[in-house]
């Protein structure tokens, strides 16, 4: 029982990242019909938004501290962050400590701007081109963005810790009446799952209950009719591209304490996320979320020691095996719509 609970928690953690990235991919494909292989790079850029804000908050000036001396008795030079001057030391320390959550406010406008520039500057020219052309150009864009990050931030992972208040672990076993210290799970991973649930719920609520979202859904179903009603659906789809970029960026921001940001992390998630989208059904938002959590949990169970002793390496291929089985039995995926990617 303890092992099952732990693997479900691990699966929800992985599935949260898969679902968030796949949700953005599906938003772009459902609105614009573009297969965006640069979406993993947006996840990476979001993670480096957290790195950038953390570095900005720790910018400092050199001062001489008379209360500290070296072995010769000379006063030491120390680095004092500028936030100390603006907010005081106690508040400044708290701001630096909470750099990752604060990066959400920094990443939202940055990612939306990047998404709009990407769509208006490049991707709009490939709307009516074959999907193969879209894949090639967006994959090339992903490589360019990856190399830019590598140039400015280096090739090594950059540790970006969670706030001190969330660096411990929660005892699920004790809460469920099991033995204490048997089923424990890091607080930040629980927060990541809760954050993903909030973002997914907000996206669905936005599309379901707002006038803007209703028009977008109508445009996804019948673009020409919406345009005949005098609605500038292209402008709304551009905004949706920005929102999809923001979703991917926020997924990257909150993932930084779990996996230290590096320049290739976008590519690591990209292929898996496309598998999630295909399994869920191209263009299906509920399908992308369902498939993300399903495949995350399956991958987690496949990583158990007992499973690996019987089937070595199964954890590396389980997602692809499940994808093959589902697509052989349901060619459109779990919740795919008729006619999508079938022309």
From TrEMBL:
A GO biological process held by the record: amino acid transport
Domain of life: Bacteria
GO cellular component, one term: plasma membrane
Any one Gene Ontology molecular-function term assigned to this protein's record: transmembrane transporter activity
Topology class, membrane: Multi-pass membrane protein
InterPro entries registered for this protein in UniProt: ABC_transp_permease, BCAA_transport_permease
Swiss-Prot/TrEMBL keywords: Amino-acid transport, Cell membrane, Membrane, Transmembrane, Transmembrane helix, Transport
TM annotation in the entry: 16-35, 42-64, 98-123, 135-153, 190-216, 237-258, 270-298, 310-328
Subcellular location: Cell membrane
Location, primary (coarse class): membrane
Annotated family: Belongs to the binding-protein-dependent transport system permease family. LivHM subfamily.
Protein name per UniProt: ABC transporter permease
UniProt source species: Roseovarius atlanticus
